[in-house]
Automatic annotation (TrEMBL):
UniProt protein name: ABC transporter permease
Family as reported in the entry's similarity comment: Belongs to the ABC-4 integral membrane protein family.
PANTHER family: ABC TRANSPORTER PERMEASE YTRF, MEMBRANE COMPONENT OF TRANSPORTER-RELATED
Naturally occurring in which organism (per UniProt): Actinoplanes oblitus
Keywords, sorted A to Z: Cell membrane, Membrane, Transmembrane, Transmembrane helix
Transmembrane segments: 27-47, 297-322, 343-371, 391-413
Amino acid sequence: MIRLSGRLRTATIIGIQGIRARKLRTFLSMVSLFLGVLAVVVVQAGAGIAERLQLADVELNSGVDGSKALYVPSMTGASQAVADTVRSRTDAVGLFNLSAIIGEPGVRPVNEGGSPFDQDWGGGNSQICNQNGCYDPNEGAPRGQAIELRLTALTGDVRPFRPYQVKSGQWLDFGTAPMMAPRLVLNEEAAKGFTRYQVPAEMRVPGATANLTPRFVGVIKDGDASPHAYLRLDELTSWLPLARLGDPNTMGDIQVAMAAGTPVEPVLIAKLTGLGAQGLAAETINTRKQMKDQLNLLRLIFLAMAGLVLVIGAAGVLNVGLATVGERIEEFALRRAVGTPRAVLAGIVLAETLLTGLLTAALAIGLSVAGLKVLSAVLGSSEPFLQNVEFPWSAGVSGIVAGLVAGILGGFVPALRAARIPIATVMRA
């Protein structure tokens, strides 16, 4: 082991001296490798950032992989069947979605249609349809201090199926008695709106017997870019008949999130089938896995193209290495004559190409990190996903590995040729 480390140290020192003595050839080798290593680093960094962005909120929106979701069709008695089946259960939760407006009565909301506050959907989602046709309840009203949002009434804690993250305050407490003033948990977009606009605490829900006075108890991250609020179903039904929930004419719908294998699934499907539903089946959530598989496929495709560029760069290093060995035949033959082992001669050439690969990788990684910071500083204000983005250091490791692999590919043949130079070459020289 000591003998091997001594040979390695000797080869490394002579390799460094060779790089310093042949700066132009080293520069040409780095140019050959640079684009290939940079391509590998960029692909890995881009894939890492894309995976972080795409998968960060996927379980918040779609649900935890392995759980199930049942989308309940709109029909008479469906809301009552869902509420009765999942009441007081922890392995299934009913989600009753509808639209609501909080703020001054008789005015148009500042975000008509429930749009994000930095966007304008033109109020296209504010229409209500019934047997008499569709109409806009806000038509002709002046714009005032009111906010439109999506409202989700829950039969229980939905976080085992959708892992919402509490940012401030607290989540809904389902262990206490319902209150006449519904407790609302806002998502981050809704909280931004209520921070920006001072609106009265009066909530209008289509079909309710009176306007409600909500109380905000917390803020969560739910992955929804639009304003959204969550409340207990039993606090909403104190003011809104259960039969009105799930009405598509008021943009209502019902979902049931459940654990795999729960007895709720067959019981609920049987009840809904008895009410006239056809072809009902719970959907198993695999969104995260599917998205990850798609991202991995794209990564492999781009890595293959980057690898091709890297191989072309290694071929350039190979040409430079062969030319260098051809110029140093007498030197290597003389070293053999004074007792230098063939392994050390091969190690000298490999040390030069490996060090060149490492230098190229360091340059490519440094340029990628600097480029990402510049991109974040220049475009971060207009592209939110670029704000506070960090360089994935797994891409840096990939760049180092790519530089070493390219160094081995480019230096293996020249190293073999250097090791096979006969001692007699000195006599001919």
